[in-house]
Design brief:
Length: 510
């Protein structure tokens, strides 16, 4: 058994597979050898999706038709479940035509991708310890010890355990029983996010009274532009509450849970009732308070963002330990509850591509970039704005990094805004550009986002997703915004064309 590797990835979900696919494509393209291994404690890739969502239905888009071919880059914007590959031979649509498909398609798809690329995975092997030794990592499992220069932790998420007295009396989300168990029972659900509303929806026609409760009021995804916010597909319990149909949605602190001869007694403190405290009786209590990152205790102590997420830089590398990186939903600490989507496949797959390219470049000692031949700078930038999927699905977080050098244009792939802002430009021959799509300040209209007045031609009034260009050279630092467009065809605006012509003349002359 090979024991020495350039990279070991711990965990085998979609993020790890996306990294492996990109590494295989880079290895073939650049004819460079990179020796990596994925170690997975379970018997298959993507085993998380055999259990979650508990009721088996994804809420991520599987939109089949976009007016462009399935293999087009633009089509990726509306396919939220696929692993990205150069030939697009395997996509989520090959396993389901449902807009919200069953979660079971993810392990099926990952299995076929593993076979297609012959990805190197050790299944049924658990990592028990990771430590540094003379600059390299020693990765210890119950089957042996491996040495590697780089380690990526891609261990995903697990249900969050709230700090509520009596929590142990509840049924956790992942242990919820079949709907028939709750027939004609009153059910108290802790949580008002997607997992809690999913549970309520599942038993809506079985339970008698259903109460969903948590401290924060509900803000839907269509209001926040954050895909992790409650989705309208899960909104039936809320509508039933408003239509007086034996449902309740409460903003309250859950103080304590007790069990007595009547059932469960949940002590709550209301947020909007002058501090009123009440005991609510229920036959069953379910806890569905969302998910948190799995940061295994096997790795050395690392600092955390917001006491939850690993502390990482804009390339998803640990700020505490050289050579350690993170992939998948565990990278969501950098954009948690923002407009971007690093906690979900359609967001973190681009993070994984960026990380794979970053590590590949470090391992083989070669910068990864693509020279654009016979280019028109203005048209190429418009093409990235109009069609690129990563900047559309990771708005304000990921951008396309372009470099102008000696009258040549290079596409360097994705960069986070964080990494670009930290870029120190010393070479006077290089001009760096980061192309992103971003929202304006939607907070002022969050309560009624379907009733927003527009000001055509006034760029600073653009609230819909619109382009931002950051420019850095030794002598120039500037940020340019373009006007929004309903169909995201940004070169259909005379205002934008004029801005781009002026900008291109300036950067080429400079």
């Amino acid at each position: 058994m090979e024991k020495n590797y350039d990279l070991i990835i711990v965990g085998c979900g979609p993020a790890a597979i996306q990294m492996a696919v990109r590494l295989e494509e880079l290895r073939n393209k650049y004819k460079k050898n990179i020796n990596y291994l994925i170690i997975e404690r379970n018997s298959m890739a993507g085993s998380f999706f055999n259990f979650y969502p508990v009721h088996g239905r994804l809420i991520s888009n599987n939109k089949l038709y976009s007016g462009t071919p399935r293999e087009s880059e633009y089509s990726e914007r509306f396919d939220w479940n696929s692993i990205l590959m150069d030939d697009d031979e395997i996509q989520a649509r090959d396993y389901s035509s449902d807009f919200y498909p069953l979660s079971s398609i993810i392990p099926q798809m990952l299995r076929d991708i593993v076979d297609k690329f012959n990805i190197n995975i050790n299944f049924n092997e658990t990592v028990v310890k990771i430590e540094k030794n003379k600059g390299n990592f020693l990765v210890q499992t119950e089957k042996g010890c491996y040495e590697t220069k780089y380690v990526t932790i891609a261990t995903g998420l697990e249900p969050k355990i709230p700090e509520i007295k009596g929590y142990e009396l509840t049924t956790p989300y992942h242990k919820m029983r079949h709907k028939s168990y709750y027939r004609d029972k009153s059910v108290f659900i802790i949580g008002k996010g997607n997992s809690a509303l999913e549970c309520a929806g599942d038993i809506m026609n079985e339970a008698n009274m259903i109460i969903c409760a948590s401290p924060e009021p509900i803000r839907f995804a269509y209001q926040t532009h954050y895909v992790g916010s409650p989705r309208l597909v899960n909104s039936v319990p809320i509508e039933n509450y408003q239509l007086k149909s034996l449902s309740a949605i409460l903003d309250c602190e859950i103080c304590e849970i007790r069990k007595d001869e009547k059932g469960y007694r949940v002590k709550v403190a209301y947020q909007h009732a002058q501090g009123e405290i009440e005991d609510i009786y229920a036959d069953e209590v379910i806890c569905a308070t969302g998910f948190q990152p799995i940061i295994p205790e096997i790795i050395p102590s690392i600092s955390r963002l917001k006491d939850v997420w690993p502390n990482i830089d804009g390339n998803f590398m640990s700020v505490d330990m050289e050579g350690l990186s993170f992939a998948g939903a565990i990278t969501h600490g950098l954009d948690y509850k923002q407009f971007s989507s690093s906690g979900f496949i359609h967001g973190f797959r681009y993070n994984s591509i960026l990380l794979a390219q970053h590590l590949f470049s470090k391992i083989v000692g070669e910068e990864i970039k693509k020279e654009i031949i016979d280019f028109d700078v203005r048209d190429y930038i418009f093409d990235r704005m109009n069609n690129n999927s990563g900047i559309y699905l990771q708005p304000g977080f990921l951008g396309v990094h372009l470099v102008l050098e000696d009258k040549k244009l290079y596409d360097c792939g994705y960069s986070t805004v964080i990494a670009f802002d930290e870029l120190d430009v010393m070479d006077e021959k290089k001009l760096h550009m980061l192309i992103t799509l971003e929202y304006g300040d939607i907070n002022a209209c969050m309560n009624d986002p379907l009733n927003i007045a527009r000001r055509p031609g006034v760029i600073e009034a653009s609230l819909h997703i619109h382009p931002i260009i950051r420019i850095k050279s030794r002598n120039m630092h500037k940020t340019i915004a373009l006007e929004e467009n309903l169909f995201n065809r940004f070169n259909s605006s005379d205002v934008n064309i004029n801005i781009m012509e002026k900008l291109v003349n300036e950067i080429i002359a400079g």
